[in-house]
Design a protein that fits this description.
The chain is of the alpha+beta class. It is 40% helix and 25% strand.
């Protein structure tokens, strides 16, 4: 459905602290902050809005930092003071640095959000990375002040698995802190690698393969309402379907069929948020002939029925 202006919604401020139960009017849940022994923090949040509202998470950092934002379940719209908006869901995460202002999440009524993220100061980052790795994150290495930097990353299966493990890992024991430290750093490293991934993966593909991927992906996105045949998509470039699948897996980590499904559901999600089109019309617009199949796929991906978006 269309996004309501933030100025018309109730706004709740939440300070990021250890083991806080969120009890703001209209929002309920729990937030946990765990200090990592090598520097930085692991954040795990689970909350649900009982009304359309804005949740402001306010940071206590007073020096340059960088953090990850990943919703394992649910979706929200993050808006910055400069007007920039980013949709966050299981298929779209962020690396972020926002100095003086908090992070404002636009929440929809009834949507359950399960979130993980890791934040580190730039100094801690420098202490833990090679010079080459640190230089790749130069966009976040600016003097502290009023810096706002957000970089979209596409979660990998490994990132999703690590994030799920971190969210569920509340076990006690003499070695639990070491396990959390290691898992959190692996998760953050995967986020950083995915931020740099376009350059890394393009180096594995020839120029011709990169062009095939670019043209095929553009064609799919422009024709989501049509029925696709992977064989015919491949024939357009005089290759077979196995080769086309290999190109897509090298570039995105997903097969052509997975790419088509993801693009259809992401487009449907955007239509439901930004328009008043009926669910059946949205399903047809993105290539689903049967509303039931669309609803099941949508719920599996976003954790809620289309009618709740």
């Amino acid at each position: 459905m269309p996004t309501e202006p933030l100025t018309n919604l109730k706004s709740h401020d939440i300070y990021i602290e250890q083991g806080v139960t969120i009890e703001a009017p209209g929002v309920s849940g729990r937030m946990d902050q765990t200090t990592l022994s090598g520097g930085g923090f692991l954040y795990r949040l689970e909350f649900k809005a009982n009304e359309d509202c804005v949740l402001n998470l306010l940071s206590s950092y007073t020096e340059p930092w960088v953090g990850s934002i990943f919703h394992l379940q649910g979706h929200s719209l993050m808006r910055q003071t400069d007007g920039q908006e980013d949709l966050i869901n299981p298929e779209s995460a962020l690396l972020i640095r926002v100095d003086t202002e908090g992070v404002a999440f636009h929440l929809k009524k009834g949507v359950l959000i399960r979130h993980v993220g890791v934040a580190m100061t730039i100094q801690d980052l420098k202490n833990n990375l090679s010079e080459a790795g640190f230089n790749k994150l130069s966009a976040f290495n600016q003097p502290y002040g009023k810096v706002i930097v957000t970089k979209k990353i596409i979660p990998t299966k490994k990132m999703q698995k690590l994030g799920t493990g971190l969210f569920l890992s509340y076990a006690r024991g003499p070695f639990n802190q070491m396990k959390l430290d290691g898992a959190a750093r692996l998760f953050q490293a995967e986020c950083f690698e995915q931020y740099c991934e376009p350059t890394i993966k393009q180096n594995k593909l020839s120029i011709i393969d990169q062009q095939i991927h670019k043209k095929t992906a553009a064609y799919i996105k422009a024709n989501l309402n049509q029925t696709f045949s992977i064989e015919r998509l491949a024939e357009q470039h005089e290759i077979n379907s196995n080769r086309l699948n290999w190109i897509f897996k090298q570039h995105t980590g997903n097969s052509v069929a997975d790419f088509i499904r993801n693009e259809r559901l992401i487009a449907a999600h955007k239509l439901l948020l930004e328009t008043t089109q009926p669910i059946k019309q949205v399903a047809l617009a993105v290539g689903y002939q049967h509303v039931g199949n669309f609803s099941r796929a949508y719920k599996k991906k976003f954790g809620e029925a289309p009618s709740r978006t």
